[in-house]
Amino acid sequence: MDKVIASVLLTIAAVVTSIVVVNAVYPAVTQGSGSLTSATSRVSDRLETQVTIVQATGELNSSGAWVDTNSDGDFDIYFWVKNVGGSRITNVSESDVYVGPVGNFTRIPYTDYAGGAKPNWTYSIETGTEWWTADTIKVTIHYSSTQSAGTYWGKFVAPNGVSHELTFSF
Q1: pTM across the whole model
Q2: Which of 3.30.1560, 1.10.10, 1.20.58, 2.60.40 would CATH assign to domain 49-169?
């Protein structure tokens, strides 16, 4: 009879220990699995996203002088950025734009976040209403005054961190 009681007590202890271990380990495994799934999704998004700045220019006349060609009161620099990846890019306004003379560039805020200050940037999708694969956006960087001639560096960073840069001259 002592052996039966000892066996029952050991069985109960084993079941209780198993429940304690499962309750301690299961949340960690579930959380780790969620983190892994999230990381995989972000990596997949970055792998499917690719952008290329295909052209950069400024509001210049045929002599190379700055002119407010669109009469908006600003002197603009334009980037045309093509979506050459395999997925649609959303939240374009949350992208980062950097521009300036080589070695002296600055981050330009999107117009909604600039508080009316210049420089700021806006964009328009050249075809359609969403930035799908093979579509191009026109990024317009608005300055309140003309920019000096020289070699400039520009970079466009999509919301997920994928970027492209270009050096150009005025």
Answers
A1: 0.73
A2: 2.60.40
Q: How far apart are CA 54 and CA 93, in angstroms?
A: 19
The answer to whether 92 and 131 are in contact (CB under 8 A) is: yes
Whether the CA torsion 116, 117, 118, 119 is positive or negative: it is negative
Q: How far apart are CA 134 and CA 36, in angstroms?
A: 30
For the CA atoms of 55, 57, 62, 65, the dihedral, rounded to the nearest 10 degrees, stands at -170
Tens-digit pLDDT profile for residues 103-156? 999 999 999 999 989 999 999 999 888 999 999 999 999 999 998 889 999 999
The answer to whether residues 137 and 131 touch, using CB atoms and an 8 Å cutoff, is yes
Task: Please say whether the dihedral angle defined by the alpha carbons of residues 69, 62, 108 and 43, taken in this order, is positive or negative.
Answer: positive
Strand (E) positions, the chain?
51-58, 75-83, 96-101, 106-108, 120-125, 136-143, 151-157, 163-169
Distance CA 137, CA 93 (A): 12
